[in-house]
């Protein structure tokens, strides 16, 4: 399934529940913050080593999947409401990043 | 382009810059927070009406595209590092939501 | 009670539970994100009018108090771990803002 | 200076700029997210060791002070707009935490 198809599925889901009036850009940006907060809570007390293998932990994995899904779903819904093509925007951003961050320079470039 | 192809492009971009050691789950979760913060800053002082048409504002639109792209790119990178299939996780979440939120009940369901 | 005294109380609380090794700057920044996410969830689906009187809602008020408290407590803990005097830093910031934002110009200044 | 006095100073600053109409609870929660995002960006690519001594880095310290101040200032403004006494709420929360988290049990309690 493409991201566009996922977006259409999520839109149909919202329309069937008459959530349109609540799915405003400001509300969806806030919902995205809430979900990133929940995702962060899964990782905040883990050591870097534990975090690196968190997805292999059978108790943690479903919660990670769930929170990553929630972040994606609100992001896709927000982009849909705003009329933004996420894949196109992301590719345009990588195009720009290829100029901004020349290959091979390590963290220096990351910190720009 | 599928989300999987975008993820592969983003992975190649990171590898060419030797960013692997910094692209740990905890760091990427933090980077996601940073980008959601930047996205939020674009909307925080807008009225609901202004926010609804923000994507039609020629000065604002490129910044919205840019921040939505950054959120998606770090999300895709994080899922890749963790070995999670985002599209699969998101569909599984909608499947569950179809049971959790019966259609037609408006905001009551949203607040669960 | 001053903020400094609250910080000392919070530090003693953490020390009694041997949480020092987990209260690193990165972990505490993440914990702050988690709490801001929980606070955001209380407001995200409210209309602006509902949000304006949310603190008068007897069901919502204890949850608002609770999340505002959690944000403050992690902020105070983080500043303590970093050795930053929050009141001093905040006053220095208002001093600078008095120069950056001349009085009387409304939202224009906000958007700087 | 007490937190209450800082809040009064911040309120006077906002009133002199006629920011009241924009300082709604939802907008201020979003502004808090934006500032936590900026704070997070200072720490996201640091190793745990670098983060532990970040406040001693003369280039980083003013930026840390600045972002911690911004988080506190929006938190204080939000609490003021909502009519919440932050110090009282935080003490009530520590009181509850003393029951929820018995001393001496390490990270187990943190993860509750």
UniProtKB/TrEMBL annotation, chains A, B, C, D:
GO molecular function: dCTP diphosphatase activity
One record GO biological process: DNA protection
Pfam families membership: MazG-like
GO cellular component, one term: cytosol
Alphabetical list of SUPFAM superfamilies matching this protein: all-alpha NTP pyrophosphatases (SSF101386)
Superkingdom of source: Bacteria
InterPro entries linked: dCTP_Pyrophosphatase, DCTPP
Protein name as annotated: Nucleotide pyrophosphohydrolase
